[in-house]
């Protein structure tokens, strides 16, 4: 299913790059097809994705959960949404379809508003989100945050702030997105370079690992949060420096291209938008360098998801640098490979031998497969 989806979205991305007339003529039906496909992808899944049991039990026991065993750690906004759907149906698959409709409706709207290459952005969006499929609350928080980007790019900070605060009602990690309100101004290159050097020094010193126990004490305020923090802080804390650096360099390829060929980047008429997205991506890569492979891996796994969204808008800018020739075709093929590698790397982050995502199990596919881990 995942490879089929990558192939499908890649086809539309290739058409967008090499035949703009076709994509402009059929943009609406192409987008609608992708939308329906992704809604089915998420909405018709069964026992596929992270946190499956927790959300299923919370939904099924919504009216009987007097002591908060299943829903006690859930934010109020998510509880209201789930309660409203629970009034209409007891079928969890119906809930998943409604959730997928909300999630993809918002992101399709944002992507087609922000990106000059929306189908490339859709391909990258799939890469960024599918390894986290099942994080129902945070997906909705990310969608609301994405709307705030529409206001941030116009400098409407009050509305953007209200949206981020609204997002915290669905997942408290949205508070980590508040600094994005300060990223609308251009940062001088020398300060960016100094920032990366400092991050590299912090990474090499492994000083972050000394804060693991303190993090658990500060954030483990409820049973669900405490269990998750314990999982992250009890992971192997011996940082594989080379793996972190190699992954970081992979992320930096696009940034280097944008810096080297800045004058060739098609920034459109909204310089503020480009600056905001570029700064988001810079913060994302810096934070990855500092926290990846440490006891604060939870920041990479959860907190950076809001900042990582910039990648689906930044990479199309980098691709716009190149002329339509065989070199650009090779770059697009590499982009599909890049997405595939990142998706399966994301799946592997849940632990060796896990089957949370593979094989994809849905209402009409691999129905007889019994999960080892759900």
UniProtKB/TrEMBL annotation:
Tell me where the transmembrane regions lie. Answer: 92-112, 124-147, 159-184, 191-211, 241-262, 274-299, 305-322, 329-347
Q: Keywords assigned by UniProt?
A: Membrane, Transmembrane, Transmembrane helix
**From what superkingdom does this record's organism come?**
Bacteria
Q: What is this protein called?
A: EpsG family protein
What lineage is this protein's organism placed in? Bacteria, Pseudomonadati, Bacteroidota, Bacteroidia, Bacteroidales
The answer, when asked if Transmembrane helix is one of the entry's keywords, is: yes
InterPro entries tied to this protein = EpsG-like
Instruction: Tell me yes or no: is Membrane among this UniProt entry's keywords.
Output: yes
List the source organism: Prevotella illustrans
């Amino acid at each position: 299913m995942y490879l089929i989806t990558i192939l499908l979205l890649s086809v539309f991305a290739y058409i967008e790059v090499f035949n703009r007339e076709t994509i402009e003529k059929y943009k609406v039906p192409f987008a609608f097809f992708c939308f329906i496909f992704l809604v089915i992808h998420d909405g018709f899944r069964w026992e596929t994705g992270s946190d499956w049991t927790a959300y299923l039990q919370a939904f099924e026991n919504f009216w009987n959960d007097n002591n908060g065993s299943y829903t006690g750690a859930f934010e109020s906004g998510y509880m209201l949404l789930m309660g409203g759907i629970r009034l209409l149906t007891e079928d969890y698959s119906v809930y998943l379809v409604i959730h997928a409709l909300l999630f993809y409706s918002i992101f399709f709207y944002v992507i087609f508003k922000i990106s000059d290459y929306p189908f490339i952005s859709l391909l990258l969006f799939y890469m960024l989100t599918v390894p986290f499929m099942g994080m129902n609350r945070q997906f909705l928080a990310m969608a609301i945050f994405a709307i705030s980007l529409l206001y941030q790019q116009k400098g409407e900070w009050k509305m953007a702030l209200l949206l981020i605060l609204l997002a915290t009602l669905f997942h408290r990690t949205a508070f980590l997105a508040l600094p994005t309100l300060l990223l609308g101004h251009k940062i001088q290159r020398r300060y960016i370079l100094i920032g990366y050097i400092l991050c590299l020094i912090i990474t090499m010193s492994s000083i972050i690992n000394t804060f693991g126990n303190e993090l658990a004490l500060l954030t483990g305020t409820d049973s669900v949060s405490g269990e998750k923090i314990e999982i992250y802080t009890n992971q192997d804390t011996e940082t594989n420096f080379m793996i972190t650096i190699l992954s970081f360099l992979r992320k930096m390829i696009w940034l280097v291209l944008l810096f080297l060929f800045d004058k060739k980047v098609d920034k459109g008429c909204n310089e503020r938008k480009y600056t905001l997205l570029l700064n988001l991506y810079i913060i994302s890569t810096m934070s990855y360098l500092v926290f990846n492979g440490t006891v604060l891996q939870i920041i990479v796994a959860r907190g950076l998801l809001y900042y990582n969204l910039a990648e689906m808008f930044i990479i199309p800018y980098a691709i716009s640098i190149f002329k339509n020739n065989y070199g650009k075709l090779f770059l697009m093929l590499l982009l599909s490979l890049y997405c595939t590698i990142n998706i399966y790397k994301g799946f592997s982050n849940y632990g060796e031998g896990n089957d949370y995502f593979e094989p994809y199990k849905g209402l009409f596919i691999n129905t007889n497969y019994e999960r080892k881990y759900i």
